């Protein structure tokens, strides 16, 4: 019996999907990514914000309508448990966020026409299932490694701790073993992910162990780049900054979602209230040519015009190399859901547009500074008309821009080539491989 898997949501979900496919393949199931080709569909869902939920629900309804047996996994079952089955009775099985190792049992049940089965832990506690060979959905130049899951922070807008449980790190040994396997398979770039990568190791080793992990990964022969995503501002220690600066394989790129800069809004968001400008100055002083990516939320309950303008001026001064802006999404069971001063949708939209227009201008100017420079870039593939698709160290996969280049000689995906940048636009660079 063939099984297909549809993945929704973040890179952390993608790793869970690949682990489930690995478990199924190990048990002899034929797995596919083509839902037309399968009898049972596993849909790994996202519940971070309302739009993501809607997308996951639409996928479930579509598959049910197509007459498939649907198993729903991940954040939606964890968040809604029984309600989801009531709303869509055709669902054949459900698995929570920390129950992915139960996928084989649930699929066996559904495949053998047994009754509906739900394996959703009441209190999620995500422990990474080691010794499973991930069946990679995305095989390319880079691969994600989940170094931890769960979260001990309780930001006012976020439901993740309720869906994923407390923070759990994997051991350095297990991560290194997986990293070495991936490099053997031809992966050039490892992208480290967790709900918060900077808290890595505190639960296991009693202190932040990300610098130590980076040092160990840096020794892997054949590995090109190491990238850190989802850093938490108050955990950016001098030791971590120094490790990023000195280790040659660690790309000079920090993904640092700040969410806001106004002290009152940060307090309401339950985020660290600290001098972000000072932190960014320190990072830029110690790591030459660093690219800092951040994300902000506009329209958080109670955000006034003055507070938004403070954020606007902050962005104007700091000039982030990369930036995303999200309109506040009101989620049940979060602290901010009950706050009285909800900002109208129209104002949220305007604020996002204003901030993104400013960032486009900054981004264009940042990109112009690379023209006539030569940058090492990782080869992703080719366009239909033979243009080489690459990424620079300053571009994370699937999030940031691309480098489009011509080449006189054939190049191989995963290789790191030098590209002479000849022109740029707001988000992408264009040049020639030299």
Question: What is the average per-residue confidence, as pLDDT, rounded to a whole number?
Answer: 95
CATH superfamily of the largest domain: tm_1862 like domain
Number of helices: 14
Number of E-type strands: 19
Strand content: 15-25%
The percent range for helix content is 25-40%
- Please tell me the CATH architecture of the largest domain by its name: Alpha-Beta Horseshoe
- Biggest sheet: strand arrangement: 2-1-3-4-5-6
Short description:
The chain is an alpha/beta fold and 434 residues long. The chain is built from 14 helices and 19 strands. Strand 18 (416-424) and strand 19 (429-433) form a beta hairpin.
Features:
alpha/beta, Rossmann fold, pyruvate-formate lyase- activating enzyme, OB fold (Dihydrolipoamide Acetyltransferase, E2P), six-stranded parallel β-sheet
Describe the protein in words:
The chain starts with a strand and ends with a strand. It has a six-stranded parallel beta sheet, with helices on both faces. The chain has a six-stranded parallel beta sheet with strand order 7-10-11-12-13-14. The protein has a five-stranded mixed β-barrel with strand order 15-16-17-19-18. With 434 residues, the protein is of the alpha/beta class. Helices cover 34% and strands 22% of the residues. It has three domains: 2-119, Methylthiotransferase, N-terminal domain (Rossmann fold, 3-Layer(aba) Sandwich), CATH 3.40.50; 142-368, tm_1862 like domain (pyruvate-formate lyase- activating enzyme); 374-433, Nucleic acid-binding proteins (OB fold (Dihydrolipoamide Acetyltransferase, E2P)). Helix 13 (305-318) runs parallel beside helix 14.
């Amino acid at each position: 019996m063939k099984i297909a898997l549809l993945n929704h949501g973040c890179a952390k979900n993608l790793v869970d999907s690949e682990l489930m496919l690995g478990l199924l393949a190990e048990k002899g199931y034929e797995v596919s990514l083509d839902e037309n080709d399968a009898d049972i569909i596993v849909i790994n869902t996202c519940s971070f914000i309302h739009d993501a939920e809607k997308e996951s629900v639409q996928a479930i309804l579509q598959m049910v309508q197509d007459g498939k047996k649907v198993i729903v996994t991940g954040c939606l079952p964890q968040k809604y448990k029984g309600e989801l089955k009531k709303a869509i009775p055709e669902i054949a099985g459900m698995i929570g966020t920390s129950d992915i190792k139960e996928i084989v049992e649930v699929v066996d049940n559904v495949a053998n026409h047994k009754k509906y089965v739900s394996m959703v832990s009441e209190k999620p506690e995500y422990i990474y299932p080691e010794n499973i060979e991930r069946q990679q959905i995305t095989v390319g130049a880079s691969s994600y490694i989940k170094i931890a899951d769960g979260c001990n922070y309780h930001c006012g807008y976020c439901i993740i701790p309720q869906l994923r449980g407390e923070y759990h790190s994997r051991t350095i040994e297990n991560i290194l073993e997986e990293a070495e396997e991936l490099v053997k398979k031809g992966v050039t770039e490892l992208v480290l992910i967790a709900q918060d990568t900077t808290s890595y190791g505190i639960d296991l080793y009693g202190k932040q162990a990300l610098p130590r992990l980076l040092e160990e990964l840096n020794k892997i022969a054949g590995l090109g780049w190491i990238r850190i995503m989802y850093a938490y501002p108050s955990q950016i220690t001098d030791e971590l900054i120094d490790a990023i600066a000195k280790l040659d394989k660690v790309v000079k790129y920090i993904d640092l979602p700040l969410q806001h800069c106004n002290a009152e809004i940060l307090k309401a968001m339950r985020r660290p209230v600290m001098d972000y400008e000072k932190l960014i100055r320190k990072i830029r002083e110690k790591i030459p040519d660093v690219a800092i990516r951040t994300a902000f939320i506009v329209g958080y309950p109670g955000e006034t015009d003055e507070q938004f303008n403070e954020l606007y001026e902050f962005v104007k001064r700091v000039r982030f190399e990369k930036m995303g802006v999200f309109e506040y999404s009101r989620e049940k069971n979060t602290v901010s859901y009950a706050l009285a001063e909800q900002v109208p949708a129209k104002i949220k939209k305007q604020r996002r547009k204003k901030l993104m227009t400013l960032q486009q201008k900054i981004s264009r100017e940042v990109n112009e500074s690379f023209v006539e420079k030569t940058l090492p870039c990782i080869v992703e593939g080719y366009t239909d008309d033979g243009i080489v698709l690459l990424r620079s160290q300053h571009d994370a996969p699937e999030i940031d821009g691309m480098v489009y280049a011509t080449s006189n000689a054939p190049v191989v995906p995963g290789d790191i080539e030098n590209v002479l940048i000849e022109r740029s636009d707001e988000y992408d660079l264009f040049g020639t491989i030299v």
